[in-house]
């Protein structure tokens, strides 16, 4: 056997084993992904059934809404339900009112929650952990427990009937958002802030110039959460708003419930119109949103 034949005889089986190992890994990965899709696709279809039913109902004539067996494909498609639903109530006025409340609420949580979370995670001070646990404990209080005391306070302040009760509380922080941001701040290496302090940077400069730019995924997550909460909030506007001109869209949808029945087709059409912007928003920010959820330690919660 020559000197050149020995390396070739050794290398060829080794190369074949490497290829077999890689093929085996790809095969097992493909099996796992296939089994996952076999489970997830039927579940996704089940979860999408109500949404498909809502779309179907929004395009039906009234005579097909309560037929049995159910009619999934309307005959004919009544596209006029959509413009009629928008004109049935002051739709765009209610959307504007909702956006005003949501915009100020988002500004409020972005103004109040990050500094508190930064203090809980990066600045050592006496009683920090105790106060943080007390803050988290407020998440266990149902809204119904604080609803009456808050209404009394806002009533004495003369705020009932306006948007202030729905906006001002967000400028005083939210326990969930503080927790989420604190978890995100704790994933940032402590060496960054220590180096900035050694260079003479103040805490405010570290917070505004160093930490906030790094928390964009978490801040985007908060924006999405808060927008969805204000967009679909029904109980708050129901308690504090008493004039139709100031109603939000969640209250406006109740106007499809008439004295002798409900305009189900129009209600579903209006609901589709309101759901579409939320779906579009999620598709645009889903990467940042999922990144924020993962990095804050909430994955799988």
Task: Explain what you see.
A two-stranded antiparallel sheet has the order 1-2. The protein is flat and about 70 Å long. The C terminus is likely disordered. The protein is mainly alpha-helical. The chain is built from 13 helices and two strands, in the order ααααααααααααββα. It has two domains: 54 residues; 215 residues, MetI-like fold (Orthogonal Bundle), CATH 1.10.3720.10. Helix content is 72%, strand content 1%.
Number of domains: 2
Shape: flat
Reading side by side through the largest sheet, how are the strands ordered? 1-2
Helix content: over 70%
**Gyration radius, rounded:** 28 Å
CATH homologous superfamily designation of the largest domain: MetI-like
What is the secondary structure topology, with strand pairs?
Elements: H1 5-58, H2 81-88, H3 91-122, H4 128-137, H5 143-157, H6 164-167, H7 175-187, H8 190-198, H9 203-214, H10 216-232, H11 235-240, H12 249-252, E1 257-258, E2 261-262, H13 264-295
Antiparallel strand pairs: 1-2
Helix pairs in contact: 1-13, 2-13, 3-7, 3-10, 8-9, 10-13
Keywords:
301 residues, mainly alpha, MetI-like fold, 2 domains, two-stranded antiparallel sheet, 13 helices, 2 strands, 72% helix, 1% strand, disordered C terminus
In short:
The chain has 301 residues and is mainly alpha-helical. The protein is built from 13 helices and 2 strands, in the order H-H-H-H-H-H-H-H-H-H-H-H-E-E-H. Strands 1-2 form a two-stranded antiparallel sheet.
